[in-house]
Amino acid sequence: MENFEFYTPTKVYFGKDMHRQVGEIVKSYGYLKVMIHYGSGSVKRTGLLDEVTSSLDKSGVEYVLFGGVQPNPTLALARKGMEICEKESVEMILAVGGGSVIDSAKCIADGVGNPGKDVWKFFTKEDAPAKALPVGTILTLAASGSEMSASCVITNEEGGFKRGFNSPTHRPLFSILNPELTYTVNKFQTGCGTVDIMMHTLERYFTVSRNVDLTDRLAEGLLKSVISAGRIADQKPEDYEARATLMWAGSLSHNDLTGAGRNVFMAVHQMEHELSGMYPRIAHGAGLSALFCSWARFVCPYAAERFAQYAVRVWNCEMNFEDPMKTALAGIDATEEYFRSLGMPTSLRELGITDEKFGEMAEKCTFFGERTLPDFIDLDAPEIETIYRMAYED
After folding, report:
1. What digits encode the pLDDT tens for the residues 335-376?
2. 325 near 310, Cβ under 8 Å?
3. What strand order describes the sheet that includes 62-66?
4. Three-state SS for 173?
5. pLDDT tens for residues 240-252?
């Protein structure tokens, strides 16, 4: 087991109707003016925004509204949010939505907390935030885990760069998790969320670190629970227990619990960032499902025993002790079939793109030759392009 730090300061309020307490929760921290940050309008259509503002009104908390976040949130919108916060003397940001809204809120918070600095330099690792405005969340989509994570991902539309970085400033002050708020999430987005939750754990599970059996078992248990809950939520969108499992698993999958004691590289996420950075219409979860199994088949020969363990423990495959590679591939096949059962793409061709930009995406993924992706074998631009092409041809 590797040395690690585990820091999860976010206070979670989990359960039915918990979002109606948001006014009291915000006021308990001493904040009297917030910016409510949200997406493209679903929070209005469902009445959630009215419930949030009513709760704030009752508690005497002032607010300004700032919507418009799209999937793969943009730096340009975040910059507008920074201007609003500074003009209105906002004391904290309340993100009401899914991972895109929360990541946008984190970016805004970093910008406001570090006046005079170019927030994009945080994402290019040229600088780091010293502090940030506090962020609270009301989660409406179980997927990204951003409600408890240290990560933030943003897209700079100038050049189509999608970049992320981790910082203690990104841990939300509190997160309100009411599974009922995910009942209206459609089948496609529910599938994308299920994939994203699994991938946050899978990309921590497939590691060169040895002697991490406790963390392995935590990850395997989470994966098995998500697989079951994902099937149920796909067919019964208002099944509370399935939605609750997905929501809590999403938080645990990305708060570093399933990576404790491991070296984590998350190569598929890095490759997907280039994909949806180049094609912003592609949902993150769909990009991950289209890439994962091709990546797994590419690196599997260098980690057959690891993939075989996954196949046996998560998918109940029979272990072939004479040829572990067969077991390993059976587990990858089972994962692929599960993604398909949720209506998720398992090839890049299904996303309606061509292969003409794969070389460019591979170069951007290496930061134009400044890095390789550490993996079971190091992935440089030629290997990354090969995986993109495998994912296109499958």
Report:
1. 999 999 999 999 999 999 998 899 999 999 999 999 999 899
2. no
3. 11-14, 174-177, 135-139, 92-97, 33-37, 62-66
4. coil
5. 999 999 999 999 9
Does 3 reside within a domain? no
Beta carbons of 204 and 264 less than 8 angstroms apart:
yes
Residue 4 lies in a domain: no
Alpha carbon of 18 to those of 29, 101, 156: distances in Å? 17, 19, 34
* Half-sphere exposure in the Cβ direction for 270 (13 Å, CA): 24
Predicted local distance difference test score (pLDDT) of residue 265? 87
Same domain as 217, residue 147: no
Instruction: Say yes or no: 221 and 338 in one domain.
Output: yes
The Cα–Cα gap between 178 and 167 comes to 26
Predicted local confidence at residue 41, as pLDDT = 78
Q: What is the CATH number of the domain that holds 290?
A: 1.20.1090.10
Is 384:364 a contact under the CB 8 Å cutoff? no
- pLDDT for the residue 246: 98
Whole-number Cα distances in Å, 192 to 197, 283, 344, 353: 9, 7, 7, 18
Residue 2 domain flag: no
Amino acid identity at 114: N
- Give the range of the structural domain holding residue 53, as residue numbers without chain letter: 11-181
Q: Which amino acid is at 100?
A: S
Compute the average pLDDT of residues 182-211. 95
Between CA 117 and CA 170 the distance in angstroms is 17
Is the same domain home to 53 and 168?
A: yes
In the structure, what pLDDT confidence band is assigned to residue 266 with cuts at 50, 70 and 90?
A: very high
Instruction: Look at residue 233 and tell me whether its pLDDT is greater than 90.
Output: yes
Amino acid symbol at 360: E
Give CA torsion, residues 320, 321, 323, 328, to 10 deg: 60
Please report the pLDDT score of residue 211 as a whole number: 85
